[in-house]
């Protein structure tokens, strides 16, 4: 039996949407995917579809360069709020940084629908960014194998028997394109590949989005594989191929070694590939980089990663911000921009309430003056759910501004404003939230038609139940033990991994914690900055306030953090900047709650912090934002009625 136990492993799938923002726009506009399409923000491109990439367009081209490369390409500007918009709109003319505010809401909403599919397909899923997730399919895979073996005659195997694995239709294999192999771990990967195909097909069927996947025995390897054969393909890394694959892999392609940390290792040891690290003992690596980083490096360069798939915690704050160029100098201008931010937060809060049945207590209003190094923040209460209207946040912030009080208020000009809400609390049972309102309806394939939900079984559960036929005694024992017991650790020099030694609870707790909601958020923020709280990850969880990561921004990026010292925190895009700002907001709230001053400390790196957007969890399908300007709801209660229309089918073309 010991031998059999060593032959199982975890099975992890990493799924990443192809040219994500572009696909959202293709579906919304009904444009075929073979039409070159780019999503732009101001004059820069933030997403480029595969047809446009074939024409030579890259993400960091500007619109003018891209048009030259591919005159027939379609350019879609991200949705924005302009003066008077209560919901983000796809404006096509006169869009300007001076007058508009970007909204990523359409992508957040699409992300929520995708994550909902992942969640119902695999309870152990972890959202890794707006368009990617890890799925730990071990249980589903083992269940399928067990079920099939139980109902087939092949159960007559002894401990030493190795199953034959046919790779036809599994996707692309890393390394040798073998058509057959043997072994339990390969069988697990083969079944995971089958489930991955099903999940990807479901995403396509329901939402018309394609995605790519990597299938391997751990998160690092799965993530490396998902990007190898894009778009719309999946790649399997069999255990036998791990060493040759890692040997040639540039160090910088490994998660957490793409930025400064990778450069540090490369320079200290004069290496460029993972294989070149193999000659160093764990003691040498620990002596150079510290105990935990050293042992993590020793493992990771061999493709060993024990990091568990854990659910991304629900966001504990939300923020909307605008850098004002030119700086503003009047209350009328301030009121104008606050109204736009207020509308944005209003929509996000109503959606969040529908998903999570919670409501924030506190608004924090940050103001940055051009000559001040950091922003000043003041806080006030948010009106309760039923009294909340789209302009509530504007009005409260204006009241804070005019009341002055901290020496910074009422000073002009203003360079940047940010409004955050936090301190979420669950709504009372007596308060009817939009979530409850929606509980009885689920989308059908037909727009506007609703049906009573039926629980969706996990893929493993969809297989036919185990046959009642009693298998031969020896095989039964062997197989049951094989699947029920925890796998034994694999030798660390083989590249094999084991299951998480301390099983995790994957559906964690509500938004509040015993230390208060902000404490919970604070912990979440700091832990998610490191790659894995419980794995031997390098300890430097709080990076300097520059923007390390796969796409470090230059100091002339328009996406600068206004709270960090000038030039020290530049981001490649608004999304990363927004996440960074959420971190500041959380810190400010956290410090205020402890009676501190809300001073800026070093924020997490943009590359390693997990998204704190409210799209962190998949959820109910809701009516999408109405097109065009619409009358705003008078209160959140009215908004609830407004939202309580029959939900639309997934993938509806708005
Ligand atoms: N994004 C952005 N700015 C960046 C990187 C990404 O705004 N610097 C947005 C646009 C992308 C989305 O996030 O569509 C997902 O990012 P990915 O890196 O996964 O890139 P894509 O999904 O666009 O392409 P790929 O098919 O290569 O994954
Ligand atoms: Ca992607
Ligand atoms: Ca991605």
* The CATH class of the largest domain: Alpha Beta
Overall spatial form: globular
Number of helices: 20
What's the N-to-C terminus distance? Answer: 57 Å
Q: How do the strands of the widest beta sheet line up side by side? A: 7-8-1-12-13-10
Strand tally is 21
The gist of it:
By secondary structure, the protein is an alpha+beta fold.
Note down, in words, how this protein is organized.
The termini are far apart. By secondary structure, this protein is α+β, with helices and mostly antiparallel strands. It has a 6-stranded mixed beta sheet. A 4-stranded antiparallel beta sheet has the order 14-17-15-16, sandwiched between helices. A 3-stranded mixed beta sheet has the order 3-2-4. Residues 430-558, 588-631 and 642-654 have low confidence and may be disordered. The longest helix is centred in the middle third of the chain and has 26 residues, at 331-356. The protein binds 2'-deoxycytidine-5'-triphosphate and calcium ion (CA) (2 copies). Residues 16, 129, 131-132 line the site of one calcium ion. This is DNA polymerase eta. Residues 12-258 form the UmuC domain. Residues 573-583 have a biased composition (Basic and acidic residues).
């Amino acid at each position: 039996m010991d031998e059999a136990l060593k032959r199982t492993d975890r099975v992890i799938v990493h799924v990443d949407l192809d040219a994500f923002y572009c696909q959202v726009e293709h579906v919304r506009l009904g444009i075929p995917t073979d039409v070159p399409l780019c999503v732009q923000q101001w004059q820069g491109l933030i997403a480029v579809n595969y047809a446009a990439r074939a024409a030579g367009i890259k993400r960091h081209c500007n619109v003018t360069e891209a048009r030259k490369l591919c005159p027939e390409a379609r350019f879609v500007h991200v949705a924005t709020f302009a003066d008077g918009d209560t919901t983000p709109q796809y404006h096509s003319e006169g869009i300007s940084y001076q007058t508009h505010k970007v909204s990523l809401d359409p992508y957040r909403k699409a992300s929520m629908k995708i994550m909902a599919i992942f969640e119902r397909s695999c309870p152990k899923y972890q959202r890794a960014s707006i368009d990617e997730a890890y799925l730990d399919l071990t249980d589903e895979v083992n269940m399928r194998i067990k079920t099939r073996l139980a109902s087939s005659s092949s159960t007559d195997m002894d401990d030493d028997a190795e199953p034959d694995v046919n790779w036809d239709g599994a996707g692309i294999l890393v390394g040798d394109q073998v058509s057959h192999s043997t072994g339990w771990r390969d069988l697990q990967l083969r079944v995971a590949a089958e489930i991955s195909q099903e999940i990807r097909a479901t995403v396509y069927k329901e939402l018309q989005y394609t995605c790519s996947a990597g299938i391997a025995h751990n998160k690092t390897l799965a993530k490396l594989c998902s990007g190898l054969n894009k778009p719309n393909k999946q790649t399997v890394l069999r255990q036998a191929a791990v060493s040759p694959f890692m040997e040639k892999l540039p160090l910088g392609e490994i998660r957490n070694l793409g930025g400064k940390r990778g450069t540090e290792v490369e320079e200290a040891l004069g290496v460029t590939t993972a294989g070149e690290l193999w000659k160093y003992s764990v003691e040498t690596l620990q002596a150079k980089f510290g105990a935990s980083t050293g042992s993590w490096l020793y493992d990771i360069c061999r493709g060993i990663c024990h990091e568990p798939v854990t659910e991304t915690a629900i966001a504990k704050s939300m923020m909307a911000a605008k850098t004002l160029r030119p700086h503003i100098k009047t209350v009328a201008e301030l009121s104008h921009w606050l109204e736009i931010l207020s509308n944005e937060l209003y929509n996000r809060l109503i959606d969040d309430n529908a998903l999570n049945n919670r409501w924030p207590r506190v608004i924090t209003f940050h103001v940055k003056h051009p000559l001040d190094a950091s922003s000043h923040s003041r806080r006030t209460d948010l009106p309760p759910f039923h009294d909340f209207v789209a302009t509530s946040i504007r009005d409260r912030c204006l009241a804070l501004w005019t009341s002055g009080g901290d020496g910074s208020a009422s000073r002009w000009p203003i360079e940047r404003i940010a409004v955050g809400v936090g301190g979420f609390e669950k709504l009372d049972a007596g308060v009817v939230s939009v979530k409850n309102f929606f509980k009885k309806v689920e989308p059908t394939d037909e727009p506007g038609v609703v049906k009573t939900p039926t629980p969706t079984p996990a893929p493993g559960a969809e297989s036919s139940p185990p046959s009642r036929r009693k298998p031969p005694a020896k095989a039964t024992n062997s197989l049951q033990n094989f699947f029920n017991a925890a796998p034994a650790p694999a030798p660390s020099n083989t590249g094999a991994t084991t299951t998480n030694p301390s099983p995790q609870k994957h559906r964690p707790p509500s938004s509040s914690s015993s230390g208060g909601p902000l404490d919970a958020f604070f912990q979440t923020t700091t832990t998610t900055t490191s790659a894995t709280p419980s794995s031997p990850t390098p300890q430097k969880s709080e990076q300097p306030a520059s923007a390390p990561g796969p796409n470090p921004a230059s100091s002339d990026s328009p996406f600068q953090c206004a709270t960090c010292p000038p030039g020290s925190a530049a981001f490649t895009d608004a999304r990363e900047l927004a996440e960074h700002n959420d971190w500041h907001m959380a810190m400010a709230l956290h410090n205020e709650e402890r009676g501190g001053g809300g001073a800026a400390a070093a924020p997490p790196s943009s590359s390693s912090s997990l998204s704190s957007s409210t799209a962190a969890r998949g959820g109910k399908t809701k009516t999408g934002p109405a097109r065009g300007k619409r009358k705003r709801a008078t209160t959140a209660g009215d908004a609830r009625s407004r939202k309580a229309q029959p939900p639309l089918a997934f993938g509806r073309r708005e």
